[in-house]
Amino acid sequence: MKKVRTTVIFIIMLICGLSSFAQNGFLDFKDLSNVNIDNYSDKQILSLYNQAQASGFSNSELISKLSDKGMPPSEIEKLKTRLESIGFKKQSDISNHTSSSSEEVGHMYDTSGKAPPVEPFQNDNSIFGSELFTSNSLVFEPNLRIPAPAGYVLGPDDELIISVYGYSEKKYNLTINESGEIYIPNVGPVYLNGLSIEEASQQIKTKLASTIYRAINTGKTKVAVTLGKIRSIRVTVIGQAKKPGTYTVSSLTTLYNILYLCGGPTSMGSYRDIEVIRGNQLKRRADLYDFLVDGNQKDNIILQEGDVIRIPYYKKRVTLSGNVKREGKFELLENQTFNDLLRYSGGFTDNAYKGAVTVIRITDSVKKIIDLSSDDFKDFVISGSDQYIVRKLQDEFANRVFISGSVLRPGPYQLTPGLTIASLIQKAGGFKRDAYINRISIFRYLENKMPTMVSVDLNSDKQNNENLQLVKDDSVAVHSIFEFHDSNYVTIEGNVRKPSTLPWRQNLSLRDVLLASGGIAESGDSTNIEITRRIKNANVDIINHNESEILNINLESKDEKAEDVTLEPYDIVIVKTLPGFSTQRTVLLTGEVKSPGRYGLQKSGDKIDDIIKRAGGFKASADSSSITIRRSIQSDLSTVEREKLFQRILNINPDSISLHPRVREEIYKSYDLINVDLTKALADPKSSENLILEDGDVLTISRNSNLVKISGEVYNPTIIPYKENKNLKYYVQQAGNFTPYARKTGALVIYPDGKAASVKHFLFFKSYPHVTPRSEIFVPQKNKSNKSRLGIGEMALIVSAMGILSNVIINITK
Predict the structure, then answer these.
(1) What is the structure's pLDDT at 43?
(2) Domain ranges in the chain?
């Protein structure tokens, strides 16, 4: 929409004649028959954009006017193409918009023919009223969709709509020409220049009634005159405006409209003495504070052709800071007081000290401080360059005392004359039941502000202590008896539904604790409950002395009082597990077996071969020589042992020789992995390889694979087919051989069952281990060392030194 509006404005300018864009503007040109768009550069077209953007024409009317003024259709198309090429909307958007959707009127622009000047002034947002001209959310535009305001003066280029209705029906759309006249067909010219819309209406009515519409005199025919399209006017802004200059604007433009367009006053300009000069006479002296403070628009007058707006320098400006609702710089008129300044700022904030204000005044030679009392606010006349500082109210109370602790309503209270500690406690609702009244503490400040404390015992000399008078800022603390006791508790754990720690109470029994914990669980043994009790004073002279007392409780016994055993602070109640109670245990068998799935462990000693038999044996594709068991991590393996186990577990995927490192890492976090020689386990059920299974074990029988993996310090880590009777050296060569960083003596073969074999050395001979299908060959990296090899010069120096040392030794032994 914005681009369409921009396009419309370009067309408006072309209506007025493109050939004189640099000097006279376009409003004086009416013949566009000789315009050649090709003669203008993009820069010139952009200059036109900044020159004339003030009109209310619809798109369809503008296109029509281009034709009416003689612009050839080919040049109109060229214009559309040029507009599109420099970043505006498509041609169809220009020609197809109707006036109802695109007639955004009232925008005003500098029409000097130059690009907008670079802003020479830095916005000072601390100046009161400056936000009116710097905020993007505030846009002052004339409203062209309202009836002509009272007193609107007609002039050339204003359009009048004359509607005749009643006995006769007729409508005229007539524009006032340069001579100030309209021409009514069959009636003649009517001079309207300088008349108001009301005066023009009466003039037209009289003319029509005396010529072709005589029924107007009898009332059978009526006439209505309204303002159609409005003309443009030129106004000039001078003085301390951010963008002074001459502006072509709508004839409905007001003073505030033009002030917004020119950027408002500069940091040195006045907001309170803006002059509107008309015909070399002062028409209006405007004060923007009337609008900013009260919303009064009495000075927002409609401008006329040739008006001059002058913004003078400010005369008196002061600074207000501190605890007011609007800090900043304010412009004051002669004889205005601090009360006026306070009104402009919105008044004091809630936490402002209102008794006095600090004034910094600049005299001819020095600065001085003035303490302005609130009594003088209304009479203290403002001086230019004053600085006013409103300070914050101190967080201090004139008549406050405070009570806390074991009273019903603790908090601050008013200090009344003669207030005693007893009356303050009464105000606070009295003591709670746990109040300790033998020593009540009063925290007090002495006259020199040093803190002190007064203690009161209301049990002894009650009358005198209760009448102890309080002073300003006293803080009374009533202690609780629970402050002098430990937080006693008991614990119940083991086979109960809700193991927990409970606060201890007098006469708390075993039955109470069992109920609070949800009762004994299904696995709990009610005949074997153990209470562990603290021994407060153990005999430490005995080496093997008792540290706690054990009470065994059998709830199934004939002793009916067993549940009523009274517990003491810090007792631990433990409900043991029923002998022989256990939940079902299962394992998961996956991979190349005939019936994979979950299997229950029937006996505590079920082994690998038992589960494989129950699964119906292996599939033909299975590698029956090894099995991988994933077992939940047990705490009896150290981190170092587990890392060693991880390093030798490489084949944990039934379909490949190794698992992706990221997946394998996740598995390592949750499980121990155990590789077993399945051939030995099945051949001899009593073999150590035939492990006893545990709950949650995951057994995996891998798919038979004829591959070998080579990794580590080789040039091309890879996976290759297995070659019978080939050793480690062969496979390393297939992977490109060792890299310079390889530790050849540490190369090893890791077999599917988790065992490993390394290169063996005897004198100068090396024995390379054999390789089986699904093995992995790993070549480690050399250990990093800070030692560097000796150069030739260093070696020569050492040999020379050794020779000299030998000669010395020989001479000594002679």
Answers:
(1) 57
(2) 37-86, 130-143+232-311, 153-228, 317-392, 413-484, 489-537+545-577, 582-633+677-695
